[in-house]
Design a protein that fits this description.
The complex is a heterodimer of chains A (176) and B (280).
Chain A lengths: L2 H22 L16 H4 L7 H19 L4 H20 L14 H4 L1 H24 L5 H25 L9
Helix pairs in contact in A: 1-3, 3-4, 4-6, 6-7
Chain B lengths: L1 H9 L1 H19 L14 H46 L17 E11 L8 E3 L12 E4 L2 E9 L4 E5 L7 E5 L5 E5 L7 E5 L12 E4 L11 E10 L6 E7 L8 E7 L2 H13 L1
Antiparallel strand pairs in B: 1-2, 1-12, 2-5, 3-4, 3-12, 4-5, 6-7, 6-9, 7-8, 8-11, 9-10, 10-11
Classes of the chains: A mainly alpha (176), B alpha+beta (280).
Chain lengths: 176, 280
């Protein structure tokens, strides 16, 4: 897939996940216990070989928009930059021994399997949420209640992201 | 020197990462100064408008509750008006000169606003309302709803404002126990949006579960006597000589739709008076 198509696709994904996050998921609050952050999907589906500095800049911008919408200055920005930085390492970690990532390809359940995508999503989401909750609650950290919230939020975000990735064509690129 | 450039080239990504993270964390640690950062919050035009749109969809689900609460408040006000009118009638004309009520300059002015965005599950919760500087909203106005004290206006943009509710770990509110005038400070520990903590009540005070806690009037922004909540648990503090008291908040933060802002017309004068005195 060429670069222009990839760029347009990424822009569409970004706008969709931002709107979904701010309009729908920021207003959902399951028993005050977990908030799903599905906007992480944008970082997940950037093409393989996307330069890490570029991914981090996009992550910073995305995080900042979420921060502005939810009155959490810098918090989502910090967590999202972190997963952008760690993404290449996570991709190496979840790689099959035989399969290789093709540069420009999109990390997705279609090309690499649902199980692969689930593992990849879970690790990235877990890093993101841990960082986010630690930054948010460092001054009022209550071990058990915070841990429960972190775990429930990781589960909710991971499941929702897998669902959205499954059914949103833009995240997968053109059908081949 | 060559080595240095080589080092830079090899670690470009990490260096960019550190710079970006430093920027983000700088925002975390300075951005809580809501006073200066209205445009960096949900009170800016774009997110404010999106929030208003979202809440205009969501509000239909909440209409029944909001209506009920407004009707209840209406009833209470009607009864108060009737009682005051009866009292006024009882006063002989010679004692009460014939001055129309409107001539009395009120020291408080109320503004109505609607909540368009709020959270209850973070440690620094905020509430966004649909009135701003253009509607006469100013920083530090007290925010109440029919149930009790909601919070304080923390930042104002042209058409929106950001409210710092009691359920924000940086909220501080001077309160007292209604029955006996012991003053304390109301804090929030970041746990339950239904419960806040009252400190500075000495152990020699007689407090009971169920006692009503009201604003003390020590702050110029909150008029005295607004309901904050009721005492739900009392524990003696181990070393300080003060009680650890839990308060059930009167306001249900999961259902705050209509709020009133209180503009204290005398507050400015009082602040001007108190400020030089406390600076010395």
């Amino acid at each position: 897939m060429n670069n222009t198509a990839n760029l347009i696709r990424l822009a569409v994904v970004l706008i969709v996940v931002l709107l979904l996050q701010v309009v729908v998921f920021d207003n959902l609050d399951f028993l005050g216990l977990c908030n799903p952050f599905i906007y992480v999907l944008f970082i997940l589906v950037a093409p393989f070989g996307c330069p890490t500095w570029l991914l981090m800049l996009m992550a910073a911008g995305e995080g900042l928009i979420i921060d502005i919408a939810s009155n959490t200055p810098g918090m989502h920005m910090a967590a999202t930059i972190l997963i952008a930085y760690l993404r290449p390492a996570v991709l190496r970690l979840v790689a099959f021994r035989s399969a290789t990532y093709k540069e420009g390809d999109i990390p997705g359940s279609r090309g690499y399997g649902s199980l692969w995508f689930a593992r990849y999503t879970l690790i990235i989401v877990a890093i993101h949420h841990l960082a986010l909750f630690l930054i948010e609650q460092f001054d009022s950290f209550y071990l058990w209640s915070t841990l429960i919230r972190i775990v429930l939020s990781i589960v909710a975000s991971t499941l929702l992201i897998i669902l959205i990735e499954r059914f949103a064509p833009a995240t997968r690129g053109a059908d081949d | 020197m060559n080595n240095f450039f080589q080092f830079l080239r090899r670690h470009t990504t990490t260096i960019i990462f550190i710079i970006l993270e430093a920027l983000a964390l700088a925002l975390v640690f300075t951005g809580n100064d809501y006073h200066r950062a209205a445009y960096l919050s949900s009170a800016n035009v774009v997110t404010g408008s999106i929030n208003r749109l979202t809440s205009s969809v969501g509000k239909y689900f909440a209409l029944a509750t909001a209506n009920e609460s407004l009707a209840e408040q209406n009833l209470a006000l009607q009864q108060e008006v009737a009682a005051l009118r009866a009292q006024l009638m009882a006063v002989p004309d010679s004692v009460w000169p014939d001055i129309p009520l409107q001539a009395q300059q009120p020291s408080l002015r109320y503004h109505a606003a609607k909540v368009i965005g709020s959270s209850t599950n973070r440690s620094r919760n905020m509430i966004t309302i649909d009135r701003g500087a253009a509607n006469g909203v100013k920083q530090d106005m007290a925010v109440i709803n029919p149930q009790g004290v909601v919070g304080l206006v923390a930042a104002v943009s042209q058409h929106f404002a950001l409210v710092l509710p009691i359920i924000n770990t940086s909220s501080r509110l001077s309160v007292k126990i209604k029955r006996q005038n012991h003053r304390g400070q109301l804090l929030w520990d970041g746990m339950s949006p239904q419960r806040a903590q009252l400190s500075d009540i000495p152990e020699h005070a007689t407090v009971d579960i169920g006692d009503t806690v009201i604003t003390s009037g020590a702050s110029a922004f909150f008029p005295e006597g607004l309901v904050v909540g009721t005492i739900s648990a009392i524990e003696p503090d181990r070393n300080g000589g003060f009680f650890d008291i839990d308060i059930d908040l009167a306001v249900d933060y999961n259902a705050v739709y209509h709020v009133y802002l209180i503009e204290n017309l005398a507050a400015q004068e009082r602040n001007d008076l108190e400020k030089p005195a406390s600076d010395e």
